């Protein structure tokens, strides 16, 4: 599954924050972009993203 849309969305938010004079937010979004790039480059771990549902 392609996660490219996540990176693009974060980049758009970062650009908007920069234009609006929100440098701390832009910096945090830059960090989020780097984390997203790292995590989406890794193969999926089937058990890592599951949450326990008490109804199960």
Offer a quick outline of the entry.
This protein has 56 residues and is an all-alpha fold.
Structure description:
- This protein has 56 residues and is mostly helical.
- The protein has a domain of 38 residues.
- The chain is built from two helices and no strands.
- α1 packs antiparallel against α2.
- The longest helix has 19 residues.
- The chain is elongated and about 40 Å long.
- The relative contact order is 0.14.
- The model has no long low-confidence stretch (mean pLDDT 87).
Architecture blueprint of SSEs:
Blueprint: H1 4-19, H2 23-41
Helix pairs in contact: 1-2
Overall residue-averaged pLDDT value: 87
Order of helices and strands: HH
The largest sheet is: none
Our count of helices gives 2
Please provide the count of β strands: 0
- Percent range of helical residues: 55-70%
Strand content: under 5%
Q: Please give the alpha-carbon distance between the first and last residues.
A: 26 Å
Please tell me what the overall shape is: elongated
Note poorly predicted spans.
Answer: none
Radius of gyration equals 15 Å
């Amino acid at each position: 599954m392609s996660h490219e849309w996540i990176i693009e969305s974060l980049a758009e938010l970062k650009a908007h924050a920069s234009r609006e004079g929100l440098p701390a937010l832009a910096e945090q979004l830059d960090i989020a972009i780097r984390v997203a790039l790292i995590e989406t480059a890794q193969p999926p771990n089937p058990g890592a993203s599951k949450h326990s549902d008490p109804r199960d």
